[in-house]
User: Fold this.
Amino acid sequence: MRLSQLKYALEIMKVKSLSKASENLFITKTALSEAIISLEKELGFEIFMRSRAGMEPTIEGHIFLQGAEKILQIADSWEILKMIKSRKEDIKLAVSYAIFPILNDLMEEFITGKSGVSLEMREYGAGEVLSALSRDKNMIAILSVSETISWPEFKKFEKNNPQWKIEELGNDEFVLAIHKNHPIVKKEVISLEEVNALKREINMVLLSGDKNAMLNKLKCCAGNISLTLTNRAKVMQMVSKGTASSLFPERVVRFEMRTNKQLDYVRVAADDMKIKYFMIYNTKLPITEEKRYILDFMRNCFKQF
Assistant:
């Protein structure tokens, strides 16, 4: 059985005619007929019913053709991967702090070179991502944007840089990551006042460049609240021990909960503390197969978590 035979059979199913299929495939009608007969002999059943009205799949043929279509899709993906591996295009990915840890795990095959793509991924603050794009026109960026804090800066970039494609990947909201045994986890939603009443340090790691803006936002809504910046691993360790609580995007916390059994979270009732995730890339430059593969991979990543 050859992949070409599967392609031939699928084309016949599509046009319901041996003559029309041979024209579309640029082979003779005789060669096409012989290829299908050979395939049917190998399978032990007829794929098509022949009649003056045309060719229709048999019951067995219909099941076989469904599988053949999936096989060809896998084969096409494999060819793309082989091409990527041989070309080794260098691709740079700028990722904001909020989601860098997740993507770093999900994209391990790219970071380690297993995929054949040479990918350099770095984490930046929200504003730094936009600056990085200005310096490198071939870069791809994955950005988390707070509607309260970073939104004006982001919209300004979008207006002044029409050559960049800005594609929304999803949205999110702040939640309070907390130890699973804390009494407050029994609630589905808490107010910012209740966050402040915990009398714990709130570690904010999402928007390092906007610390003061976030602190002012929290103080405005919840009074005197302490906010410090530290690395994600340290924060999660503190939350797991019950020595701190932490404001994080919900996707990040859910991702951590896959392996951290001491972690839980509570939603925070603050409508304007939302986050959106965007992918940004330059449409004025050629979209190579390598880059297209990365773009598709990123879209799928955001469907997974």
